[in-house]
């Protein structure tokens, strides 16, 4: 029998839910695919796989299609480091911050955006709690990101502002959501995914043993088509695989200017004739963005 093609929509301790055209199958991995599993995850949510039917709603994953992109992190494990795949093949990442209460942490947002650039994942910014400030204030906080190529959606999980636009941006795509706590991420996701109580799930999850093998990850289907994944914890998105020298390439407003620096190995921290620092001086690069760059470049915390 021909294998079926499907998308991994949930993983938990060696069990995988695979969404096929004919429905969802509870699958395991064929033994020969498990080589190297002590070094990292073999499959993840967002992977396309080939499955054979075992009957009774069960299936066996026979092959994993090549991954286009992924977000991963290194986690400590008894045998050294373990590469945990947070999500395979995301079409975009939505970063949720609030306009107020709490005030936006641009350093964190800029880190997220750098990770997106590194992995060629389009980034989308959700400026939530827009009901708490005037439109002018909201724009003064987030409009700096528009010329860099990141769309900004001003939203409110309370008033409903921007929910339609956010929904439109998610249709037929696999989107990963991230953001600090308290910004209204769960409130937004609960609006986008009616019938799902994300808070209740998050609570029951943290009472588990907390080992990476027991963590379940899930793609939640949107009624309109497409999927949304919530990233557990912020540390999940770290800069572990980014070299200091490549960092300027992940700031769109610096990328185009570095070739005008006097030194071709310019760090943009102190060198004379630095085109990046000149652009900061001239007000062409936002000082907060430059500060984010210097922090990351020097390996400082956000
Ligand atoms: P999370 O930690 O990011 O998942 O945030 P929650 O969804 O738990 O929301 C944190 C708090 O902010 C709750 O008290 C929500 O009622 C409130 N909240 C969420 N979204 C909004 C919003 O758009 N506007 C306002 N004013 N409050 C919001
Ligand atoms: Zn420079």
Question: Would you mind describing this structure in some detail?
Answer:
It is a single chain. The protein is an alpha/beta fold and 302 residues long. It has three domains: 4-66, Nucleic acid-binding proteins (OB fold (Dihydrolipoamide Acetyltransferase, E2P), Beta Barrel), CATH 2.40.50.140; 86-230, P-loop containing nucleotide triphosphate hydrolases (Rossmann fold), CATH 3.40.50.300; 244-297, Probable gtpase engc, domain 3 (Ribonucleotide Reductase Protein R1, domain 1), CATH 1.10.40. Helix content is 23%, strand content 28%. The protein has helices at 106-118, 135-142, 163-170, 185-192, 198-206, 252-255, 275-281, 287-297; strands spanning 4-12, 15-20, 23-29, 48-55, 58-64, 70-77, 80-88, 92-98, 123-128, 152-154, 174-178, 217-221, 227-230. The strands form two sheets. The chain has a five-stranded mixed β-barrel with strand order 1-2-3-5-4. Helix 2 links the parallel strand 9 (123-128) and strand 10 (152-154). Helix 1 packs across helix 8 (287-297). The longest helix is centred in the middle third of the chain and has 13 residues, at 106-118. The radius of gyration is 21 Å and the shape is globular. The chain starts with a strand and ends in a 5-residue tail after the last helix. The structure holds guanosine-5'-diphosphate and zinc ion. Zinc ion (ZN) is lined by residues 261, 266, 268, 271, 274-276.
